[in-house]
Amino acid sequence: MPRALVTGITGQDGRHLAELLHAKGYEVFGLVKGQNNPKAESIREEFPFVEIVPGDLADFSSLVSALERSRPDEVYNLGGVSFVAMSFNQAELTANITGLGVLRMLEAIRLVSGEDRRIRFYQASSSEMFGKVRETPQSELTPFHPRSPYGVAKVFGHDITVNYRESYGLYACSGILFNHEGPRRGLEFVTRKITHAVARIKLGLQQEIVLGNLDAKRDWGYAGDYVEAMWLMLQQPEPDDFVIATGETHSIGEFLDLAFRAAELGDWHPYVRQDKRFFRPAEVDLLVGDATKARTKLGWVPRVDFPGLVEMMVRHDIDMESRRINAR
Ligand code: GDR
User: Fold this and answer.
1) For residues 9 and 30, what is the distance between their CA atoms, to the nearest angstrom?
2) For the segment 224-278, what is each residue's pLDDT rounded down to a tens digit?
3) Kind of pairing, strands 27-32 and 51-54?
4) Does 76 qualify as catalytic in the annotation?
5) What does 221-234 look like in DSSP terms, one character per residue?
6) Quick check: CB of 113 below 6 Å from ligand 1?
7) Which of 45, 96, 159, 263 is 20 to 30 A off residue 311, Cα-Cα?
8) Active site residue 283
9) Is 150 a catalytic residue?
10) Helices 306-327 and 252-262, packing angle to 10 deg
11) Helices (DSSP H) in the chain: which residue ranges?
C-alpha cells in the first residue's frame, strides 16, 4: 500500500486529495498543527481513514518526526497561509510558513530519505507568482512578478523546490495551479463568498453582498479536477513543473452573472455593494493559464467547466442553507 503525507489536509485541496488518494488505495497521513485543533476533529469525522500526525511547517523537528512516523512514498505540501488578502497584514507569518515552510519540509525529506531519495515531493505553487503578468496566457516559462507577500512567498517555495531537485536529485515537482474552487472553498475567497451570499439572498437571509474589485479576471477551475493533476505529477518517470489551468478567464462580474442566474435572482447589480475594505494594496488584474504541457505530458484535462462550477457551488450553498433553516 503506498503511503502519502499531506500538509494542509484541513483545507479545500487537502480534503479533495485525501479522498482521491484513499480511493487509489493509499494510506493517508495528514499533518495538523496545534493542540486540540478543531479542524483535526472535523477531518477525523469526515475522513476516518486519515491518520492525523501532529506537526507544524514552522517547526523543522516536527516535520522530521512526521516523516519518520508516516514513512511516506509521497509528500504533498499544501499547507500555509493561502488567503492573499491576509498576507498583506501578516507578511512575516506568510513568509515563514508559505515560503520557508517549503524549505523546512524539503530539508527534512533530504535528511530522512538519505541516499535513496525515495520520497517524492509535490509543492503547491500558485498562479499568484505571475502577478503583474509579463505575457498572456501564462505558462511554465513566463517570468514571475508577484504582487503580494503571499505571491512572494510562493515564488520562494517554487524556486527552492526546483533548487532541491537540481542540487540533490530529489523527485520534487511544483504544480503552478491557477484558482480552483468548489463547495469546499473557504467563505473568505471571492467565489464562495458570492455563492454563499447568493444562496442566503435567495432564501431571504441576507440582502446584499459587499465586495472589492469586480474587474479582476481569473482562470477558475474545479478543485476536484486539480488534485488529480497533483497526483499525476508524482507518477511520472522524471520530476517536472506544470501549469494547471482551464485556459479561460472570467471577471468577478461574470461570476456574479452566472451565480445570480443559477439562483434565478435576475440582475445582480442591485444586490452588490463595493467597499474599499476588500480592495488590496496591489492587485493581480488578469490571470489565464496555458496548461498545454500538463495536457500533453500528464494527459490531464479539467472536467468541470466555468458554468458547471458556478452552478455546482450555488446549488450546494442553497442546499446547505436550506438544511440549516429546516434544522432550526
Ligand atoms: P486569489 O483568490 O487572491 O485569486 O487567490 P480570491 O478569491 O481571494 O480573490 C480573487 C479576486 O477577487 C477579488 N475580490 C475579492 N476577493 C475576496 N477574497 N473577497 C472579496 O470581497 C473580493 N472582491 C473582489 C480579489 O481582489 C481578487 O482579485 C486564490 C487563493 O486560493 C490562493 O491561495 C491561490 O494561490 C490562488 O487563488 C491561485
Assistant:
1) 5
2) 999 999 999 999 999 999 999 999 999 999 999 999 999 999 999 999 999 999 9
3) parallel
4) no
5) EEHHHHHHHHHHHT
6) no
7) 45
8) no
9) yes
10) 50
11) 12-23, 38-46, 60-70, 84-89, 91-94, 101-113, 149-168, 190-202, 223-233, 252-262, 292-293, 306-327
Place of cell 530529489: 170
148 lines ligand 1 (CB under 6 A): no
pTM over 0.85: yes
Q: How far is the CA of 33 from the centre of ligand 1 (A)?
A: 25
Whether 218 is in the pocket of ligand 1, judged by its Cβ within 6 Å, is yes
Q: If you average pLDDT over residues 150-169, what whole number do you get?
A: 98
Instruction: Name the residue type at position 130.
Output: F
DSSP-based three-state secondary structure for 176 = strand
pLDDT digits (tens, 9 = 90+) for 9-33: 999 999 999 999 999 999 999 999 9
The catalytically annotated residue of 26, 122, 150, 226 is 150
Q: What strands lie across the sheet with 241-244, from one edge to the other?
A: 51-54, 27-32, 3-7, 74-77, 120-126, 171-177, 241-244
Give the DSSP letter of residue 212. Answer: S
Q: What is the largest CA-CA distance in the chain?
A: 63
- Cell numbers that stand for 271 in this block: 444586490
User: Cα–Cα distance between 289 and 141 in angstroms, integer?
Assistant: 11
Condensed to tens digits (0 to 9), the pLDDT of residues 194-213 reads 999 999 999 999 999 999 99
SS3 of 239-292: CCEEEECCCCCEEHHHHHHHHHHHCCCCCCHHHEEECHHHCCCCCCCECCECCH
Q: Grid coordinates representing 161?
A: 523546490
CA distance 144 to 165: 19
The confidence score (pLDDT) of residue 183 equals 98
